Batch of 4 targets.
Target 1
Amino acid sequence: MKAFSNPAYMLGNARLEVRLAYTGFLILVLIGLATIAVFQLGHVGPWPADIAIHFRGGERDGAMVFPKAFRELVELTHAHAFVMGGTYLILAHLIIATTAPPTLKKWSVIAAFGGLIADIIGVWLIRYVSAQFAYTQLAAWIAQWGGTIVLVYWPLRDMWFFGDADEEDD
């Protein structure tokens, strides 16, 4: 991590073992994204009405869905705040060390973190304030997805497909 304190550090110039370690992490992030996509789209549902029913309870496909209990929301919040917070911190550091345009770096970090915070708060607002916050939840998911895809793409691109031009001279 000391390398990140050097403003000139770029992932495309990283040693092979560093690139392999970061790539392993990014592959695990992609697996995590795939599983959350299955959960969000398959279990919760892609529409605001589905999201509201998942957290507030109601009827879905002819079956009764119970509202999420306070304890369930605490567990969800706890897991997301720690795991996703750490994951996004690492992803933000990785994109900073890429050739991505500065504006894209800023907005992808803002979108990913903003989406994460809105996702964590949104479940509480849906459950205890109004089902209308399901629209906010959907927007949070879109922001997280958009930001995270950029945060994963650019490090992989720079490490494996857009490396140090000096290597060709060796």
Target 2
Amino acid sequence: MAYSDKVVKRFQDVLDNPKAHGVGRFDPKDPNVATGMAGAPACGDVMKLDLKVNPDTDIIEDVKFKTYGCGSAIASSTMFVEMLKGLTMAEALLIKDKDIADALELPPIKLHCSVLAEDSIKKALTHWDEKKARRQHNGGPDIDDGGLNYVIPEKQNGAPDNDTTKNV
């Protein structure tokens, strides 16, 4: 199985200049940071996504990621960094794994990488919604203990997920 030229170029660019491509993390206690993490047990790939969000506008101002996995997983992470910056949280929900897979020309055997990317985005958005609700409930700035507990929304087919709370 050969990687597409787009995956190879992105992967090489990240190796040459990781910070320019959003590799890193934000302080998890920052009230304006939302985090999502997803993993694929079958292959061992793990993606962690941090979004820095403007609390007044819900616009994603900056994005960081840490990905442990193959070239396609890392390329998928750099792709969502580009796709998310400047979007509102509602617009970010519209990004689908197919958008990432098509942009990178991922082969069928690597489609799980784009699925991980979409999952980490959804989990970060859920984390943001919880922080926002807590901030509104408390009537002031959010103080996060860094535990990053969040509730996973129901699966698309409507079946509830048995494991509804994850600790990142």
Target 3
Amino acid sequence: MEHPSPEVKRKQVTLIYQNVFMNVLLKSVFTVDPHKKSYKEIICWWEQRRMLYNIVMFAAGSATILLALLLREIVFTDLINVFPPVLIVALSANLFYTLGWIMEIVCRKFISEEEVVQKAGPVLFIAGISLSVLFTFAVDIALLISFFFEK
């Protein structure tokens, strides 16, 4: 039986470390301490993830702006004019993000089933980030439709 080469072993070890890192990262982002009960703890859980939310939204928004540049919907020299609408969208997205912890607190107050309440934060977080990205990519879809169906 042949032993794997050092290169193959190194790649296997790298993959193992990457998988462990991703599992730890995903668990830390998408899981909740089962003993989290106070409103302050709920708000802290959400606020610890706001930076991740903003990074994801920045990436989605940057893709939209890049697509608009590539399709010549905006000119590079006019990028300064894009800033006010982008700022409004970013502030609005963060206001909607805040609704996440408000909704989780409402769930905790009015839903008595502990298992449902326990999953409310991660479910609301994933749903919120997904809808936010889809909303941002709706602009991309509109740009593409406009580009391909332009007369």
Target 4
Amino acid sequence: MSRRSLFLVVVVAAFLGLVPASAVANAPNNEPATYRLVTPIPNIGEAPNGDHAAVLVTQPFFFGVHPKSVSGGGTFTHTFAGGSFSTTWTATELVSFQPYGCGLAPTGMTLPANFCGGRAEIRISIATPSGPVDAILTVYCLITDNGQRPTNAEEGIRLLIPGVINFNKSEGGLNRYEKLA
């Protein structure tokens, strides 16, 4: 190999080393794991019409990936212009879970190694006086292992009640997924 070719290879390799790789905003999700969802305060979602949903886990809440499983529930409060309505909800299916990693708070503070973040999409059943209503609850926790997370992720929840209302803006919350196994 000529000196010129060798120089070109070295320059290209050095340049590629300086170009940032695309940010990995999540951890691998191809192994069995069990998590407990902890929400010490209510998570608030807002609908475009200004209505709010407050969701809190009040029952032990566990879910597993590979294979998928879920159990638990909590309270749901819908606040609207004319008042509010409070009831309970129960998890019925883990639709998906995308982990972001474990051990690093969004502030950069180190957390216990089993405190994890991610995005869990859960099918739930909300108890109402006229019978159960199905919904999709998405819970976001911004804990990571390296500070990288999807750009549109925000701590809190989103709640879609198909054909009724979509609380598609998080107004805050505090969540964590505790990895148990």
